[in-house]
Amino acid sequence: MSGELRDNRGRGEAEWGLPAVHPEGRKFGVIAIGVALFFGLVVGWEALGWLLAALSAGIFAFFRDPERVVPQGDNAIVSPADGQVSLIAQVPPPVEMQNAAEDGSPGLGSDPVTRISIFMSVFDVHINRSPIAGTIRRIIYVPGRFMNADLDKASDDNERQHMLVERADGTRIAFTQIAGLVARRIVPFVKPGDIVAAGQRIGLIRFGSRVDIYLPAGTDAKVLLGQRVIAGETILAEIGTTGLLEGVNQ
């Protein structure tokens, strides 16, 4: 049940069920089913009808919206996206987030921080979630190109949307939704001033993309390059925690 508290002592209930389909995707699935029925039953092109029926099932699967169990640690930064950690680098924050905003809220500055890039294929869940609890301070949309989102320069060249979340203690974390070769629409669910919980749904990107998250200064990643992460569940880092982690690909 959504909102139920669970812990590592067995509190809560575990259940299985088919994930819901986000309303943003239902219309696309219904349209695909309608087209499949038209060609399969009205026109009589059964092969094409079955092909379109399979496509409609894929559309519903793409927009699936499963429940997640979000860790509640005070300093935990959870993954904003499902996918694979494709890049970890020390880079300056996005230029749009470096300076103070018009309302006087501070920016992130230009000093390099750790950026974790998460690549989402068309088979991943594309609902994005807030990495921390706090207030949405900025949402900045930047038009751009539609290159392969797995490339490093996609952070600067592709169509993207930056979000800045501020905790009650003033810690600020930025993350960026980046469109890719197939993705053509970034859909936000929140607006500046909204208060969000860690792991709360904040938007989606249609059809393959990437999310970058910029960790606070003095914080290192707790995930490794190539690792699979789950939005709202995988802890990417703990604020103020540093140290080298190594893994072996097997």
TrEMBL record:
For this UniProt record, the keywords arranged alphabetically read as follows: Cell membrane, Decarboxylase, Lipid biosynthesis, Lipid metabolism, Lyase, Membrane, Phospholipid biosynthesis, Phospholipid metabolism, Pyruvate, Zymogen
Q: Post-translation: what modifications?
A: Is synthesized initially as an inactive proenzyme. Formation of the active enzyme involves a self-maturation process in which the active site pyruvoyl group is generated from an internal serine residue via an autocatalytic post-translational modification. Two non-identical subunits are generated from the proenzyme in this reaction, and the pyruvate is formed at the N-terminus of the alpha chain, which is derived from the carboxyl end of the proenzyme.
- EC no. given is 4.1.1.65
Where does the source fall among the domains of life? Answer: Bacteria
What are the required cofactors? Answer: pyruvate
Note the topology in the membrane.
Peripheral membrane protein
Is Methyltransferase there in the keyword field? no
**Where would you find this protein in the cell?**
Cell membrane
Q: Keyword Lyase on this protein?
A: yes
- What residues does the record give for site: Cleavage (non-hydrolytic)? G208, S209
Question: What's its job?
Answer: Catalyzes the formation of phosphatidylethanolamine (PtdEtn) from phosphatidylserine (PtdSer).
**Name listed for the protein in its UniProt record:** Phosphatidylserine decarboxylase proenzyme
Q: Which organism is it from?
A: Aurantiacibacter gangjinensis
Query: Could you tell me the gene encoding this protein?
Result: psd
